[in-house]
Amino acid sequence: MTLQLRRTFLIIGFVIIVIVIGVLIYFLFFREIITPSNNGNLNGVNGGLPLSNDAVNRITINELLNRLPPVNGVNGGNTNRPVEPDRIARGGATVAPIVVQDTTQGLAIDRDGSSLVYYDPITDKFYRINRDGTKTELSGNAFPEVSEIVWAPDRGSAILTFPDGSKILYNFDTNNQVTLPKEWDDVTFSPDGGQVAYKYMAENEDARWLAISNPDGSEVRGIEHIGDKGDDVEVAWSPNNQMVALFHESSGISSEEVLPIGFNGENFKSFSVNGRGFQGAWAPAGDRVVYSTYSSDSNFNPTLNIVDVYGQNIGSNHQTLGLQTWPDKCAFGGGGTTLYCAVPSSLPEGSGIYRELANNVPDIFYKVDLLTGQQTRIALPVNELGSGGYSAKNMFLSQDEQYLYFTDTLTGRVHKMQIK
Predict the structure, then answer these.
(1) Across-strand partners of 343?
(2) Is 203 helix (H, G, I), strand (E, B) or coil?
(3) How far apart, in Å, are the Cα atoms of 316 and each of 89, 129, 197, 261, 286?
(4) Could you list the residue ranges that cross the membrane (predicted)?
């Protein structure tokens, strides 16, 4: 080996030794020590599939409470402590235990004012559950794939709709059933249950009517020809039997005109509402309507309002209630002077148009004094451990107004929450 080659190999060896020594010095003295995260396996659970960003970043009950101002000095402001839920609603996290474990549809309070009736889509049967938790079948018959349920006021019968649009009137007291026309849509019972109102949506627009009849389909009487305006007619039989529907149509870029429809061609005056997408519900006395609309001012999310709809006062005493929710997420109390509402804690823009955007958003419950307009946060429903959060539907009060019942949109289970 020549002297030149030997010198070259010595230089290369020296460089390699320097690099190795440098790497060893870095790992021994300068490398940042990395400790395991307390969260551990954030994007995977027990070696399973990674969690979605939504699951990782979903807001906790504590975080939600931290965003809310205190009510009565409780459950507000910044806290990192575990939530200790109240048993009676007083503004913060409140236990809302499950009272019906089954997946339910068509939940309603029974004629005794304390029992619940509902349809279980797993067993295809209807049940009654008493206050003590006893569950009994309303009928031994099964009703596969019921898609819609409209109960008579006495809960003794119901109109059932199936996926193909077919309908029956079923009497749970006698186990008798009557086949009804498929063309019936938006069916509503009269307050005494003796008649029903509906839109008869024939294939031919010329044969489409707002009509009333007996529940079995006999003694039909046309109220108003609706033609191609079916989507603008909301069947809503008023508790005072003065009106049968509310017709609404666009009257500007961001407003609608609402016309109450009577039974005998009455010339009721209309009233204007700000926004689009009118949805209304009668107050118990039939003298006021609580409604929601959406507009660009609300990021196209629903805003709740109330207005007089009787006699010469139609359209008077408009009142904005300051809540972003829908009327069917509310329940009247106090003889119509109080409104309890489930209000989504946050709404994606456009929820007024695409309501499904709000399906899994936890609700915060509010009480509104309709005499003064004052709104009060009463509860954030949670489970026994102080976690969870629910998106409510089918809300109603117990007869003594001590409990508020609702169905969780996600699971279909029924919860109750003590409010007094």
Answers:
(1) 364
(2) coil
(3) 33, 42, 27, 17, 14
(4) 9-29
DSSP conformational letter for 86: B
With a CB cutoff of 8 Å and minimum separation 6, the contacts of 374 are 368
pLDDT recorded at residue 6 = 53
| Burial of 182 per CB tally in 10 Å (0-12, 13-18, 19+) | middle
Around Cβ 18, how many Cβ atoms within 10 Å? 10
| 249 bridge partner residues | 257
Structural Rg of the chain based on CA atoms: 30
Name the one residue in this structure whose structure tokens are 């039974």.
263
Pairing of strands 288-294, 276-282: antiparallel
Residue 49 has pLDDT above 60, yes or no: no
SS3 of residue 141 by DSSP: coil
Pairing of strands 196-200, 184-189: antiparallel
Question: What residues contact residue 330 under an 8 Å CB cut-off, 6+ apart?
Answer: 281, 290, 304, 339, 340, 341, 342, 395
Q: What is the mean pLDDT of the chain?
A: 86
- Are the beta carbons of 81 and 74 closer than 8 angstroms? no
The encoded tokens of residue 286 equal 């039939």
Q: For the segment 173-227, what is each residue's pLDDT rounded down to a tens digit?
A: 999 999 999 999 999 999 999 999 999 999 999 999 999 999 999 999 999 999 9
pLDDT above 90: residue 27:
no
Beta bridge partners of 212: 197, 221
DSSP-assigned letter for residue 328: G
Rounded Cα distance between 195 and 170, Å, is 15
The tokens describing 165, both together, are 């649009």
- Cα 314 to Cα 328: distance, rounded to the nearest angstrom: 22
